[in-house]
Structure formats: C-alpha cells, structure tokens
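Person: Show me a sequence?

Helper:
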Amino acid sequence: VHTLQRGESISKLAQMYYGNYKQFHIIAQFNGMDDATRVTVGQKIKVPKVAGLPFHLPQQEQKPSATLETDIAETPTPTQEAPPGDILDEGPTDEVSEMDEQVMAYRDTGIVLYNEGKYEDAVFELNKAIEAAPEDKQTRSYLAKAYFESGKRLFEQQDFKAARDAFESAYQYDPACDACLTMVDKSKSGPVLMRREKGIDLFNQNEYSQAIPELELYLQQRPKDTEIHGLLSKAYFQQALGDYNKGNFQAAQKGFEAALEYDTGCEKCAVYITKSLESFKEEHYNRGIVYFGKENLAEAVSEWQAVYDVDPDYKDVTANLQKAQQLLDKLEQIKKNSR
C-alpha cells in the first residue's frame, strides 16, 4: 500500500513501481477508480504485482509504507478515503495546473485508439484528457478527428441524430472544420433523403401504392426535385393503368389526372383520362339498362345516377333516370298503401 505524497499521481506510481507510466490503468482498476486523476495527498493506493511486468520497490527517500499488495486475484472495493479532487493535495483548493503524466497517458491512449479505428473509445479517453487540460492542442485536434470519424459511421448507419451530434462536437473542437458543418447539414437532411431512397426502391419493385406516399412526403421537403416529379407521374400512371384494366374506371381516371399533374407533358395521361371517363359512363349506363329490364328499379336508378353525376348529357341517361325514378316512387307508394 502506497500513501500518496504531494506531487504524486497514479501515473507516477506506475512509473515508480512498473517503470512505465502508461500502466497507470492497472493501479486504477485495482483500486476501483473511474477517474485516476481524482486522488489526494494521503490517500492509500494498493499497488499490485502483475505477472509479466517488472516490479520495482521505490527508493527509501520516497518513504512508502512497508506493505505491498502481491496478489491481484481478488479485486478490492474502491477506497473510501479519497474525496473528489483533480490532483494530489492536502486539501481541495491547492490544485496543480500543469498536464501530468496521467493526463498524457489518457491522451496517448486516445490517439492509439483513434489510429486503430476505435473512434468511440478514443473519444472516451480523449475526453478525460481534455477535462484536465482543455487547451491542449493535440488533444483537441484528435478529439475533433475522433468525433468526425464516429459521426461518419453513424451517418452510414442512418442514425442521423447521433451523427449530427458527433459532427457538431467535432466542430466545437475544430472551428476550422468546414467538412463538419457540411456533414451537420447532411445529417439534418438525412431522414428526408432516406425517404427519397425508399420511395425509389419501392417504385423499382413496382410497389406503386407504397412508393407514392413516400415520394410525396419527400416532395414536401424538396418540391423542386424534378426527378421525383417524373417518378410520381409514372407511379400514378402505372397504378391507374392497373385500375383501368380491372374495370375500376373512376379510380383510374383520378390516377391518370394525378399523373398529369406531376408531368403536364404526359400525352397518354390525357388520353387515358378521356378513355376512363367514357368507359365509366358506358359501363354504368348499360348496367342501368340491364337492371331496368329486370325491373330492379333501385339498382337502375343507382347506375344511371352515377352516369348523370359526371355527364347529364350522356345518351338518354337523363330521361331514363327520370322514368326509372318515377316508376320506383309509384312502386313505393303502392307498397305503402297496401300496409
């Protein structure tokens, strides 16, 4: 057990006992420390012997206590003697301002993790260093780079909100990073672009009924996207053509009209609008005749009314409708009087 003296830190203990300050994390973990910079003068630190690492007894003038830990099989509970404090001191007000080996170790670890492509881990370590030395240029530089690369990964995973936060953090540490601002804007528009991509994929799969709402929602954000206008016209046309072939002429007409709105130069749209209307009128007019011949007056009235609503001048629909309605009214009156 080593009793900390003024000017000592966990990294200095690692240098003292292991000959390498970068091994500070061993001592920190063994003592249950989340932040190895928060120690104070007089705090008792257990220093374990570790297989594969040299272990040096400190020189006499350092006056450590005589007892040393020799077994790391069991992890002790965190020490309770250390109140929060960034550096070694006899009280919470006498702080050391210079970057010591401990903070450098955090920074160096973060740089190594960055170079290994472990950007989130690098951010974690570098943030420890920046908290103790907020103006260190190298730490700020690598922290900006780590946040930026992490943001790129999140963007590729389509986690646009987290990506935007990462790019904004990168810009915070590197205000000259124009690419950061560019990616912030892209992250903000990411959901919109994703909807565009989804709509195009559905269109290519001939899923027109699903593609149309996705593309129309996208156009609310990007109304000048001419490519999407063209795709929507085609999607509405294909959907309407399916309705036309199934005999759903009114639905087909509406679909062809929507297609024409998105592409005013669509000549076949105009042709099919007329064909749909004429087919609708003819079909329902003939159905009315059939129903009237079978004395199904209510059905005849319904069919001719549908034709009358879109074109009252179509053939004899007005006269037929009046005749059928009069007969139906008389029949209803007879039934009422017979009760």
Summary: The first strand starts at residue 2 and ends at 3.
